[in-house]
């Protein structure tokens, strides 16, 4: 997300060359680390590392490195995974690095080439668009037929204490390499959120339809993190791990959505009128609910319930939830 801030500052002319020269080596190291350690098996694909391969106790192994901890990914982690959100972040980062290199007089052709390839809509479709799902998605070794069930244990020998059965994952259908179904939500929206789609792309129309569908992502309080139709919606990930990115409304992601809708409402395209309406409705819903909850509880919250709008999680939480102030000011 730092690259989003830098992108905006560059656009405003608010960063001097001396400062850019000082931070450029560190930006190179940061970008290089991601481009070296998080690459996928195919060119121009990326994979978050660190997923737990011992999935016995997880409904869906976490991807903590993404920041979207329990958001559903491929059910069986493997090196074949392709993660849509990381690819989109790298597209933004590559474009910013190319611009910074130009401004400080350093070679930037490699960054520019990467930015061009990651902005290629045909390549994005090839790696992440599923016609069957009519959505952008991760790719990996996946099955939706998983559940947490109480394990069956043998009776202990006489005189021994009874063991406590755990909730363990049961796989009812073997996984296969495919686009990750049953996971429509924030990750699916990333090409829109980071404004990578042309304003006339058919995929933009599909994402807008999913966004405004109340059975999927739309609520009177903001966009929920995971579709109500997902088999993972509001499901616990372990016995002691309640749902986190599986339905709750997060202000940081809603800010990106409002920001993107504002962008597409200002460029010519077949969806401009619809986008403009959605922009005003979503902004009103998010700002209104955060304000109501603040007046009711006295706090800004980490996340908001997608059914009631009530604040939940940590509080007071004026970290990224404070982005609501930028929505109020229409500062994007």
From TrEMBL:
Record keyword Transmembrane present? yes
In this record, what's one Pfam family? Glyco_hydro_63
Q: Which UniProt keywords apply?
A: Endoplasmic reticulum, Glycoprotein, Glycosidase, Hydrolase, Membrane, Signal-anchor, Transmembrane, Transmembrane helix
Class of the enzyme per the UniProt entry, highest EC level: hydrolase
An example Gene Ontology biological process: oligosaccharide metabolic process
Domain of life the protein comes from: Eukaryota
GO CC list: endoplasmic reticulum membrane
What family is this protein classified in? Belongs to the glycosyl hydrolase 63 family.
- Protein's name according to its UniProt entry: mannosyl-oligosaccharide glucosidase
Q: Which organism is it from?
A: Micrurus carvalhoi
